[in-house]
Each structure stands twice: as structure tokens, then as C-alpha cells.
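SEQUENCE WITH STRUCTURE:
===
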Amino acid sequence: MGIKRRRLGFLLAGLAVLGLVGCDAPAQEEPVPEPVQVSVMTLEPHAMSVSEVLPARIAAVRSAEIRAQVGGIVQRRLFEQGAEIDAGTTLFQINPAPFKAEVDSAAAALQRAEAVLARASLQTRRLAPLMEAEAISRQLYDDAVAQRDQAAADVAQARATLARRKLDLAFASVEAPIAGRIDQALVSEGALVSPTDAAPMALIQQIDQVYVDVRQSASVLEVLRRQASSAAPEMVVEVLGSDGKPLGMHGRILFSGVEVDAGTGDVLLRVLVDNPQRRLLPGLYVQARVPRAQYANALSVPQQAVMRIAGQASVWVVDSQGQVQQVPVEVGELVEGRYRVISGLSVGQQVVIEGIERLSPAADVAVRPWQPAVNSAPHSAAAH
């Protein structure tokens, strides 16, 4: 029993000594947090063009189907398939022999009619003084005049028939109605053709200029019209390849003949593009960068700087004390990785671009200028 009391006494004495030592130790101070390293961008106004990339198809400015205007056997094809031809170039030669025979027959009929007219005219001139002298009856003279007039009508009809036969002979040489590039021949030598054939003999398309047909929402059409009629810079549409890469070709929008599709609510906009090198071929799928708006003094921030919480966009802004505050903003179109700022920010403010994940309200920051990454591929604009 005495041993237990001595052990308890030693334990209490040790605890008392530890308590005295703890009271004499100084309290530890909390370390001061270092400023958060962030990259910032100072807002400055700049010109901004908002555009939209839409799918499009190439169409020829003019297109003509080559068809036979007379029936016959095709003797020769007189063009190289895929070549550039001029208007009036002979493309096919239909056998002209039947038409030459008809021309000769019509010419002979005309000569015969002219001979009859000459005889009737002479007879009328001879009977005129006899009728005045009452040596012949009035009826005989009137019959001679009627025969002369009928012969004159026969001559006119024979001339018209001859002109028609000559026209048929000319139609035996099938000519190009327009200049352009001709596709492959759809008929060959020896084929029988006629004006009633369903298929054409060939197709010519003028492609030194082409249409880029773009389907656009009808709601945007009025905006494009106002911009085209205002003092804003000319609305130039850029043509892109099917892979989205620029082709170095531009055109202008034609607003004439625009009609709204009742089924889709879209309109077909035609963009006229010069195509001197014939790089754009009818039916080719391309993309078109269509301008939507122009802003002379816009403010914009990189997409990575904008956060969205419950649908509300916000950015971190550095104040004059070197601390950050979260500011709600309203953003518009996204152009080449930057949001256009509609409201919430002003010129000269510093917006945090990199280091956002380490920030908290009123945190001290150490700023450095933001260096944007080089991006060679342009982005299309989208409304948000």
C-alpha cells in the first residue's frame, strides 16, 4: 500500500513539472501567406469583327445545256472535254446532207413562185389599158389582179420556207450559247439526236465567277441588310475549304432574290466570288465565313478567364491594393477564343487570366503580364 502511494506521488510531481515548463514556452505565430502568382491582362478597347462559319455549296454563275434543235446523226464532236470554250464555238456536227437537200428544194420552189408572180404581174399590166378602154370586162381584169396577189403571197411563203430550211441547216452545227468550261460529251459520233431528247448532248458552265450558296437563319437576314446599307466596312465573305482552312478567296453577298424556306425558316444567301483560276468547281462543298457585326471599340477577355456559376459569368479583377475580387460580367460573342464583354468591366482594369484556381476573395496577388499562346487557326464566332 505504501509503494502505491509513493508511485502516485511521483506521477503528480512529474505532471506539475511539465505544466510549469508549458507555461514558460512562448506561443507560435501564424506564418504570413505569400501572394498568389497570377497572369493578368489590362483591358483596352479594340476593333472586333464577329463572323459565323457556315456550310456552303458552289454553283456556276451561268449554266447551259447543249441540245439538238434538229434531228439527225452526229457526225463529229469538235471540242476537247473539260476545255474552256467561247460563245459561238461549234461543238457537234449533225449530218447536214438532208438539210442541204431541203434548202435546195425550197430555193427551187421560191424560183417557181417568183416566175408565176412575174407572169401574173405582166398580165395585169397588159390588161390595165384595155380595161380603161373598155376593150375587156372588169371581171377579167379583177381576176388577173387576184392571180398576181396570190402569186405574191406564194413568193412570200416560199421565201419563209427557204429561210426555215437554211435555219435547220445552220442548226446542224451545234454551237455553244455561252462561254465557259464544257463537261464531258454525253453523246458520241453516230448517235441519233432530236430536239425531244430528255438528256442534253453536253453541259457548259461559266465558272470564272461562281456563287457560294449559304443557308442562313432568316432572323439574321435583316441584320445583314442593315449592315450592308450602313456606313460600316463592306461585308466581305471569306471562303474556306471543307477542312476550314482559308482559300484566300473572298466575295460579296447578293441580297436580290432572297426567299425564305417555309419548311426550315432559312434563307439561301448567294455570295459572288471571282474564280479566275477555276479552283472552285460547281457542286464543291466549302465553308463560308459570313460577317455578323462590327465593333469599333470592343472590350474582350480570353475564354479561360470567364467562370460560370449557376449560369452567371464572372471574372477575377485585381484592385488598386493588389487584391482580387470576383466581378459578375455579361459576355457576348466568342471570337477567336475571346468573349466580347457587354457589361461589368471598364477600360484599364486588370483581369486575371492564369492562376484562377488558387484565388479566393481579397487574396493578395503578385501579377505578371499575360502572354497569349500563338494560335494559327482562327475560330468562328458564336453567340452566348
Notes: The CA atoms of residues 96 and 351 lie 83 Å apart. Helices lie at 2-24, 97-132, 138-171, 218-229.
